Amino acid sequence: MQSLSQLYYLHGIGYEYTKYTGEHVIFDESTRRQALSCCGIDTQDADAIKQLNFALDAGTWLNLLPHTSIIEAHHPILKVRVDERLLSRSCTLSVPSLDIHFTRENLQDLAVLGDYGLNGIRYLELALPVPDMPIGYHDALITVADQQSHSQLWITPKECFSIDDKKRLGLSIQLYSLCNEEGLGIGDFADLANLITEAATHNMDYVLLNPLHLLFEHSPERASPYSPNSRALLNPLYIAVSLCEDAKNNSALDKLLADKPHNSAPYIDYTSVSDFKYQVFSLLYQHFYEFASAQRKQQFARFCETHKHSLSTMLVGDRDYASYLQWQAHLQLNICQQAARDSGMAIGLINDLAVGCAGDGSEFKSQNELFADNAHVGAPPDPWAEHGQNWGLPALNPQKLSKDHFAFYRSLIRANMEDVGGLRIDHVMAIRRLWWCFENNAKQDGCYVYYPFEQLLAVLKIESHLNQCVVIGEDLGVVPNEVREALKASAIYSNGLFYFEKDHQGDFLAAEHFAPHSLLMIANHDVPPFKGWWVGHDITIKQQYGLLDEDQTQAQFDARNIEKHRMLNFISRESNQHLSLDTDAFIVYEALASSLAAAPAKLFTIQIDDLDQQILPVNIPGTDKEYPNWRRLLSRPAAQIIKTQQTLLANLISIRNQ
Questions:
Q1: Quick one: what percent of the chain has pLDDT higher than 90?
Q2: 44 vs 25: CA distance, rounded Å
Q3: Residues in a beta bridge with 93
Q4: Any residues with CB less than 8 A from the CB of 19 and at least 6 apart, and which?
Q5: Could you report the per-residue pLDDT of 324-363, keeping only the tens digit for each?
């Protein structure tokens, strides 16, 4: 039993947690045992458990360096583990890529960071000063006496990349929801470029996107960007024909576009849109294959070489064609980011990284060995889901993540920082711990499992600098203080959502409560648009779709009125404006946005849905096919929406600049 308890700890299987009610919960032994089984470990095999414990604990002291060594760029110290009998021997470190080769005569007088006794031998962890090295990953070889170790040195900055300390205003959008100027039924990168130009004209500094991850070509109605086919690849449906070089002088394409389907519904018909756009893509690829210049074909070849890891994960029949679509998507995303920077935006595009991938997609299937068996990501019980949540996303095995120097995670972060100025990480707690859902004795069970936080955080900081990309961590819900402090110390923006920021009495917190290094939003994709929320249309929709009975509907309307009174009290406190329940929804929204614009938060984000005065939600959490999630379009072109609200935007910018 003691050996098993040790393995729980070494494998990151949680022991306890504090529930949202404040209750202290200790996980059952059977729960922890099942979580370990999901990691592929036979919990009945005492010898195997003993060997694993040795490898994960005592065995790590037998090597001079671990496979991955984190070195702080501002204080370059390499942690070396050595038999104390070798302290008088010389030490040589080589980093070939940086042409670094140095020798230290002995290891005596170095600071001792820790020690371990094994078989009568004392091993010491020493702080070895090393030369300054550029931020990044560098393969190294260390030799002490006749012992050698290879390690990859991670030169890690103290903080993530950041911009100057000024209050900024930005816009959040769901790219697919933009009205498409080409009439193809879904927002694309050309629509995004037009939005960027207009937003920059009104002094906005960034556009926060939904995840742009690859979905399912052959199952187009699987539209959730938060349950993708692959997070390292882009969704080709965002490719704009007008931005594609291969659309020029393409008579076959012109003929097809002349007969495009007419789309006028308020919701996206993904089957129709996908069917037509993939016909378009086929003609674009064919034209490229037949008529592209040697220079463009070389550019495509370079793209394929640079992105070979992510492209190799695609499970497709024609990889060259699929790679061409990825190339076009990346080119157009880059065009949009460049347009943002050329227009004077300080950040430009902020991408969104989903917490997981679908269990039948290419990310999971191509890298299946990195995932746990029959364990899915979810959330523990909270006020919105008393029995917890199972999001159906396969859980990564924390011990397998270290394979090839954390190549999977590094590649994933790099792919999502490419061609953008910022990255929002959905459920940032995933770099520390995740709630696993699994079956135990024919019942649903779950517990927290911990991940290699120091290494995953280091990757974020390194890639942030290499890609000049700010990082926002979505930290809603229960987040341990030590994690919040580590994110803060790493200059990762927190993500405040106004609706959820309340005191113990349920009143909205004062605007001054929002931390300076945070991204503040009134609402996000999981909350109804403001007008819909104010008039209670989201409650009416739930009743219409059979999600609420009559009593539940009335109870929610009563609770909503209490929330509206609390919001009016907040506005009154912050701006001295005295509004009522009868006040027009948009007037209330303007007052609320103006109040929050004065908050210390450096990034304040408004939804284009709210500027469009939408009442239909883009997503109702907890539903799948009951409501048309991820399909609702805006009522008019984005540039037109922004122009219509230019007075409000000018006021918000004025407040931000005070």
A1: 92
A2: 26
A3: 102, 142
A4: 25, 380, 381
A5: 999 999 999 999 999 999 999 999 999 999 999 999 999 9
DSSP letters for 131-152: ----SEEEEEEEEETTEEEEEE
Q: Can you tell me the distance from the alpha carbon of 168 to that of 153, in angstroms, rounded to the nearest whole number? A: 36
Decide the pairing of beta strands 147-156 and 136-144. antiparallel
Helices 481-489, 453-466: inter-axial angle, 10-degree rounding: 30
**Eight-class DSSP state of 183:** S
pLDDT higher than threshold 80 for residue 478: no
Backbone angles phi, psi at 162, to 5 degrees: -145, 165
Nearest in space to 336 (alpha carbons), one of 400, 226, 271, 240: 240
C-alpha angle with apex 504: 500 to 507, nearest 5 degrees?
60
Half-sphere exposure of 328 (CA within 13 A, CB side): 28
pLDDT at 384 over 70: no
3-state class (DSSP) for residue 186: coil
Helix, strand, or coil (residue 556): helix
Question: CA–CA separation, 530 vs 615, rounded Å?
Answer: 7
Tokens 């103290």 belong to 158
State residue 477's pLDDT score: 73
The whole model's pTM is what?
0.96
Tally the C-alpha atoms within 13 A of residue 589's C-alpha that lie toward its C-beta: 26
- Give the number of residues written for the chain: 658
Contact 35, 436 (CB under 8 A): yes
Measure the CA–CA gap between 69 and 37, rounded to whole angstroms.
Answer: 29
With 0-12 / 13-18 / 19 or more C-beta atoms within 10 angstroms meaning exposed / middle / buried, residue 509 is middle
Contact 196, 204 (CB under 8 A): no
* Alpha carbon 80 to its chain's center: 33
Residue for token pair 């939408």 = 614
In order of their start, the domains of the chain are 2-56 (no CATH), 66-156 (2.60.40)
Going edge to edge, which strands form the sheet with 112-118? 77-83, 121-129, 112-118
Report the distance separating Cα 527 and Cα 605, nearest Å.
14
- The position carrying tokens 């879904």 is 186
Element (H, E) at 638: helix 638-644
- CA proximity to 81, closest of 130, 123, 122: 123
Six-digit token string for 447: 């517990």
Query: Could you tell me what percentage of the chain is helix, strand and coil, using 3-state DSSP and rounding each to the nearest 5?
Result: 40, 20, 35
> Residue 234 in contact with residue 333, Cβ under 8 Å?
yes
129 phi-psi bin (left φ>0, alpha ψ -120 to 50, beta other): beta
Q: How far is CA 531 from CA 26, 330, 617, 655, in A?
A: 43, 35, 10, 23
Q: How far apart are CA 475 and CA 497, in angstroms?
A: 10
